[in-house]
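Quick note —
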Amino acid sequence: MFINRLFLALCLVSVGANAQVLKPAKWSYSAPESAQVGQEIELIFKATIDKSWYLYSSEFVCDGPIPTSFTFTPHPSYQLVGKLIPINPLDKHDAIFECDLKIFKGTGEFRQKVKVLGAPLKIEGSYEYQVCTDVTGQCVPGDGEFSFTSIKVSGKSATMQESKSEKREEKPKEEEPQPTSNNQTTPALAVSPAQQWPPITGPILDPSLKQDDAQDQSLWGFFILAFIAGLAALLTPCVFPMIPMTVSFFTGRGTKFQALIYGLSIILIYTLIGAILSPLMGPETANHLSTEWIPNLIFFTVFIVFGLSFLGLFEITLPNSFVNKVDQQAEKGGIGGVFFMAFTLVLVSFSCTGPLVGSILVSSAGGEVIKPIVGMFGFSLAFAIPFTVFAFFPGWLKSLPKSGGWLNTIKVILGFIEIALAFKFLSIADQAFHWRILDREVNLAIWIVITALIGIYLMKGFRMPGDTGKDAEDKTVSVLRVSLAITVFTFLIYLIPGMWGAPLKSLAGYLPPVSTHDFDLISAANNEKANEICDPPKYEDLLHLPHGIKGYFDYKQAMMCARQQNKPLFIDFTGHGCTNCREMEARVWSDPQVLQRLKNDFVVVALYVDDKTVLPENEWYTSTYDNKVKKTIGKQNADLQIAKLNNNAQPYYLIVGLDEHALVPPKTRDLKVENFVKFLESGKSKFKK
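Predicted structure written out below.
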């Protein structure tokens, strides 16, 4: 179980690198300090634009670029007079859109007249704009809010009172005013609550809301797991016998200093492997490696090959000529000779350490450039410690158990585990592309069979090709093997109820989601208590929410429903290949305290960042973040998270109000139910205020 948990965790694929967010335009606004009732005043909005960038004006006839626009929230203390006026914009012909535009360079200014109707004067609203540069071809959309609430107003407010009385007579009480735009002078009547808000653009995270960052924690966890993998590598037939052989060299002619150099050289060699591969593990590569079918089938094949090698079908070795040349360098002596001796150890033990090292490197392909280095450092540190320690204290060698058949037993067990883990990669691709060839019960059936084989093997029910010698012939089962078999068969019994829908919370991140299960009694019971939503969700035939929660998989559709139901929106940035997402859903979302809040107090939207479903061509768009066309559900959701929230890690939870502004700091992986309940309650409380 211990090693099983280790390698299950090594399949974690997560994305945690922060993206750079450009802000080429900075806004300010001003107005008179005082005014009288009935007076017309002018509001001035100014933009400071970075060099080589330009801002689109508010007036031009052209489809494509986003013009600058201002939306004013209605209030009885003022009334708009005329349209928004751009001050001296420049002419520009856009060859791409084949039209004439109005732009600003350096600075941009817009003015809007309003008539003061009474006190206190409250003028608030929002703005949207787009800035572009011809240097790199990038375009960046932006938005913000403005507020004029400190203007001192003198004079009688009769006009405002009369206006309010007339409005009460003209419309029913339940009807509310519509937002006043640039081109409106009179609020419209009889609008729904959803129509009171500006157009939906995307969640907005105030910089003052500090984002949770579990990056350091995940790196430490990955380091520990890699360290344990290094300890496991020591207990293989290729490595364990080399400990006394290597130590005898240093006790015969080497020094303790050379022994220390030997250990450091092992660490250096493995860490260099991680450093060389780290540039290939960046954020752009991560999603491709973790969800595309070709890389995952390659990983699946690699794990199967490694597993069969450990079972004894064949041996993975490096060319003898290469190993011999390195060994010749080691015989020269000195510090250089010690380094090449360490290199020889790495090469000779490759047939046993290769699968473990490969597992670590595959698991690190999740967007963290530093992760392969951390993983290889942790593995090599554990791998090097025994060689160095026993070289310093050779007398301790007598306490080591003798090499024998038990080493091959460990190797065979690792082989079974490698084969079981191979299906994790096949499962990720299967979910992302909706192939439905490896549903939850199929994956569970494979794991049940493999676990049973491990237990039977431990009880000497059958032998593998590498099992030779007296230990293999002896049918007596040691107490240690019986203890391990009990653990394995206990895990087997734990798996079996999963075939009928048991949640198996401890394995939630490593199995396909419960929604792929054909016979799920638990989810069927939960669906009877599902919450109500506004209209049928888009993509509901492809994507699902856990525990009978009804929600959406499209941000705009979910935001519209939140406005109609007057509820905060709970956003779940997730992924098919996100191990921590499944773990959160199984261990935290399933808790009654969390589940009843998600169902009753929020509109829920799950945004899959790795789904490969191609959208209709009229829904494609070019990202302002990386200037690439986003064609799939996953690409568009990932772009939304990066461009709007400056984050690309999952799971990532956000609660926003009806104005799309985040109400509380975001939440990442946190398995403490009480913390997640506090997160939901704080968002709900802020929404009510």
